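Quick illustration for those who missed Monday's session on complexes.
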Amino acid sequence: MFHDNTISPGISWYEFSVAERPTYPVLHETKECDVAVIGGGFTGLSASYHLAKAGLRVVLVDGARFGDGASGRNGGQLGTGQRQWVEKLEKALGHERAKALFDLAEEAKKDILELGNKIDLDYFPGQLSLIHKKREIAAYQAHVENMLRYGYDQLSFMDRKETQDRLGSDFYYGGIRDTGTGHINPLKLVVGLASLASKAGAELYEKTPATSLEVKNDKCIITTPDGYIKSAHVLLATNGYNQTLRGFVDRTIIPIRSYIGATAPLPIDSEILRGGEAVDDSRFVVRYFRKSVDNRLLFGGVESYDKAVADHLADRIRAQMVEIFPKLSEIELTHCWGGTVAITVERMPYIRDIMQNVTYCGGYSGHGVMLAPFMGKLYAESITGKGDRIHSFKELKISPFPGGKTLRRPLLWLAMRFFALMDRF
Ligand SMILES: Cc1cc2nc3c(=O)[nH]c(=O)nc-3n(C[C@H](O)[C@H](O)[C@H](O)COP(=O)(O)OP(=O)(O)OC[C@H]3O[C@@H](n4cnc5c(N)ncnc54)[C@H](O)[C@@H]3O)c2cc1C
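Prediction with flavin-adenine dinucleotide bound:
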């Protein structure tokens, strides 16, 4: 039922929750197509589906198996709006552009819910965004009001008492309840999107890494260990993995490992998240958790930039969880796993034409569950001449991470240690 994932650590609980995870062949020949897609996560699979549905010849390769990147292993939380709140976007971009980005995110959410009619996603409504520092209360209250200006009336502010009742813990100062979003099983979305893409006519290959990508005489040429793909366009949907093609986006995409642990099923009468909502908090290094369909707590929040954390992962996840839910100090963590999140300095997606006819879509900064499939659709829209809404993302300023090739990693490590420390005060 499950397999050995070569690019992300640990076997996830999701592996046991899908009835079937079909395999796709390895590419052993030369292919010609209209669009070649590198990366079979939400972005690549969704783009392939929409492109093939529009009648284009599509070939997708993934170096691992579909979903082995972030898409099949994440927290499953949809959220509302972009990763950055509208207040911040409005300051940087003005109301009109901030509103346009908000509306696109709402459409992305609607799309996922509609996909739920074709794919069983285990969708469950409700999201609590919780306040970790007392001084953040006013900003959270104001956010509920500000969202009304964006036409979004599904938020309500929760005081400490209501938060405690809904969460089953008095750890947070309050928060926002969002009844207009929810959470899904992400691996089911991966499996479903792959099936839709394949049925629409896209050719899908797993365990086929793209080892080089070049553009010659208007043709894009992708090399794989045992084949070639020649195409008019390429979508680079490698997100934070970029196995062999890292050089293309190395300066702007910061890969960070995030880890999740699944507990044994909680007692049926547990007071934890009685309403079944997903939770994220106001830390810089966000803690995020929710219950699974079989009543486990799926708890994320440990991050790392090296492999050392994997050695004592369960202890570190448990320590964070028990801070919030002391009663869970003895509960077994039955599964622990990680994946790579692609972060940008601005914490907004990095969507760019990086060479002639080659577009990179990624860097969703921990907000890709609804945005990545949608970006695949917007990419397809732009290629098939149906619109250029992806431009709203292409024109976002995304800064290179400082430090150059040698200093970037140590600087990042220092920055994240600093922010993790600040979360404590
Ligand atoms: C632990 C964790 C928790 C998260 N929680 C949430 C959450 O709750 N909500 C949310 O919105 N977002 C969350 N995210 C982020 C979200 O999962 C991602 O934004 C989203 O899945 C990105 O999808 P993608 O298709 O762009 O990339 P990925 O799913 O990362 O896929 C990239 C694919 O590219 C392939 N690849 C790389 N290089 C090559 C190559 N050279 N040749 C061929 N294939 C290649 C990889 O094998 C991989 O399959 C989380 C991420 C992680 C890791």
